[in-house]
Amino acid sequence: MHLAEIAFAVAPGAHAVVLMDQAGKRMTGKLKVPANISIVALLVKCPELNPVENAWQFMRDNWLSDRIFTSHDNILDHCCEAWNKLVDQPWRIMTIGRRKWARGF
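-> structure tokens emitted (105 positions)
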């Protein structure tokens, strides 16, 4: 369903590339990949290649570490607050996912 939503949002005549880790439930042969999407599987056990992992690491390093959570709701509140802080800084999101070696120049 997630890929179908992405496919729907892709402009007519365009093609999307989706980075995906190789978790079994995501890389199953049963996965229906729309024609306007290509899947690029990240290397196994290389979370540093996954930009989402880098975003979580940034949030842990800056807003979520060195604290004691008092409840499950408290964890969710702090994670949502950290996520919203990050979303308010699009330039930071771009730099977290950028790789000098991947730019080709």
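Residues 2-45 form one domain.
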